[in-house]
Amino acid sequence: MNRIKQIVGLMIIGIMAACVEPADLNVSRSEIIIVDGKVTTQLGDSRVILYGLDREGIQIPLTDYEVSVSSSDGTEYPFLETEELGEYRPAANFSGVIGEQYRLTAISTGGSVIVSSFDSIEEPNPFLVETVDTVRTESEEFGITITKEAKAAMAVFDVQDADYLARFTFRYVYENPLTLTAVVEEDTEAFELFSCTDEEVCQQQQSVTLSLVDFRDWTFLNPDSCDFTIDPPPPCELPCCQDFLDYPTIFTIRQESLSSGAYEFWREVELLRENDGLVFDTYPFPINGNVSCDNCNLEVIGFFSAVAVLEESELVVL
Amino acid sequence: MNEYAPGESLNSNTVIGQREYGSSEVISTYNRLEPRLGLTYSWKNNSINLGYSRTNQYLHLIANTALINPISIWRGSDNFIQPTQIDQYSIGYEVELKNGISLSVESYYKMMDNLIDYKDAAELVLNEELEQAIIAGEGTSYGFEFLLSKPQGAFKGWLSYSYTRAFIQTDDGNESINDGERYPYYSDRPHNIQLNTNYQLTKKWSMGLNFVYLTGAPTNAPNQVFVIDGITVPYFPERNAARIPDYHRLDLSFTLKSRIRKTKKNNDRWVLTLYNVYGRDNASTVFFSRGDDGPAQPFQLISIGSFIPTLTYKFDL
Q: Is the pTM value of this prediction over 0.90?
């Protein structure tokens, strides 16, 4: 059904493309306060970011707030502002506990109080990382045959319990063989949500597929001589250099277990970001978070979440 | 059809069962009265009109105008969607002035019950459970219309201006839009100006002018973009808080009586029409689309956004 929707949508886009031009809507911007907070089970990973957006859309960090995270038993964990203005991190070693609930309180010097609702750290589900060969292509470039291979990373898991909600992100790391420095590639704008609320479905093996990646980068080749443009060149010539470029890569998938409230928030984010003007878009809407402020003169939006983090990696040699 | 828990909003979580209807079995029936009342008082060349009417709309138009190709879905009333009931009150005044000129002014106030709008994040197309995507609310519409017309003479035509507003408020106790605050309905286009004139320049030549101005329709536009956990998110404030660009267009026409056919009752004529004289790019809809990077940007679908001359030969047989 989704494929049919995409095809029909693209057909209509194609027909209408000639009559489409950028629009100037002259929209007056709202001044808003954003709360981006997270408590995780990983040490050093919890942080709260507070910033405002002015009428020009410029980010203004909110500094000198009294920020604390409290658990359901009333224990308070103060957060202090770091060198990065508007970013607050735990004053002492702190990591969230699975099964516990946490909420955020941030008080400005003027007495405005931003609070969140409680969010609970849900039990994560263990998973494995598998890679799948997806596309293998050959092309003629620089007078030689170059083979390109793309792989997809998958998180594969057996879900035993119902009501399993999670968000997955993905990165890979490889060492550039010429400069011998680690290259971290992360699509920070990509994530995948997983929802499993039916017990029968949950008990089947599930998987989440993340980014397709093509690691080949031939830009440093000199097409005239097939010599590398970087000095010094590697001690070989093509085609043996093709073997030289088969460098090992580490795929890492990060899982954050979500509460139902956090899942609904990220689901709304996903819907807003998926809309692309096609006929099957959902109608845009104001996003709801779990933060509020009774005595702020600006609207406060955002989400404070408490998540359990699991990361798994796999080494791949293309 | 789904059966839902009583008193709950219609969504996938409140489905308690399914009911099958046989072929030609009645699903729901609505019997409504539709009274009308009209009073006119005339004296000399003046008249005052008062009117009241109650109508019911059993066919609902559910429009999603935030797309490149606006989608309108028609849905009949059923056991989930009650007919829209409209009560309209109107008062008007007309007067015949000198030289055949007439002036009329009319004002109206309309109250609508069970006016349909779609919920936030609703999917309308190919949705087999459309009742989960829509919500009923109360609508209000009011305005006045002004019309000046001169139907005869060398110079004739009419000028109309109307100011009308249309709002909707949705809060069924379980769900709401805009936190239950009223917002502009998709048909809310306050200013509407229309000028249509024709001037007989000579016995053979006449010239016509047509001008249209219409306030842009309400739409949804993100007025901020924020980042949370590295993810860029567009921020849409209230429903229908923005407007697509206003629509306006000027057309000119020149008519020349033709003597090509030398017949007694010759009404043949050449008509040169200049459509959209200043080439206004009028947007029929505005939608948002993301490029490779960054947040969605607004684009408008243009309906005939260029100057178009046409030459026509008209004749009667």
A: no
